[in-house]
Amino acid sequence: MSARFMKVVKGVRRGRAIAKKIRTHFLWVVLGFGGLLFGSAYLVWYQEQNFQGPYINAFWSVLFTLIGQGEFATNPRTFSGRLIVFVLSIIGVALLGVVFSEIMQRLMASKLRELMGMSRCKYAGHTLICGWNERGRLILRELLATGKQVAVVASERPPSLANDVYFVSGSPADEEVLSRAGVSNAVAAIILSNPSGNADDADAKTILTSLAVESANPELYTVIELANPDNERHARLAKVDDIIYCDSLIAEITATCAVHAGISVFMRDILCASDEGHRFAAFNIPGEFEGKPLGDFFAYLRKERHLPVGIIAPPQDNLQAPVGLWHSRINPEEDLTIFLPMKAVCIVKN
Does the pLDDT at position 252 exceed 90? Predict the structure, then answer.
């Protein structure tokens, strides 16, 4: 019994060693298999068909021989043809099995690595979601509704994550993980707050992640969640572009809905991009409108069926300020002279 077991173990080891050699020299195996097919097809074209008809017909005859089908496989006319059928029936079929099994194994391994979040994201111009909480699903829905490509970076794969969302496993504060998420090719990053622990600890982790993201790609537009407004000064040192306080924002919306009955329907419409209603959008004002009254650009937007509601612009004494520090003006005077850079905020149809 032990001798038989040892033989099985040795056989398994030999099989693993052969499989390792095949993976290492897989390109040569493929080239050898291709050479066997094309060489056999040429011999069939020469010996069996006397160069009659196109070469591709001989090639198809060789392919069908691998599965034991076709006239040539069952009735070769020459000795060379019989030899080719014999070689293809043994060596060719074996090589075909090796090549296809290796291809399938590599495809399955690649897909498994992707599902586990270990592959490298090849998106460009995408948005990163760093971390995950209960708001992540809603944020993801809105981003996908606008046609954005999204990569999620989290320690665990979120449940029911859509197939068109790329998942990267690991800490979003880790440089190697961010590199796998394609941070250098991304245009924006949303850093979600960790709901566990107290507010200051959660904010500290969020700011640490923002430092890693900004260090990896300083041109990235970074939006972060904070729980404690006192920590904003630390986040600004990390050079983030936008800071959202979800608790205070929800409280303000809730109070507004209580004071103005029915306004929640309107707010839901313009804040949601995933339905057939409307949403907010910001457009850079083109250079051709510089120095002209704001009303001229607003008239152009109305012709495009957009409803202008305001502008955002940098402080007059610091035109190079990041967008997150720009000032907003709701319902501005239309005789205001346009200076650049400036963005017009509109309500547009989804």
Answer: no
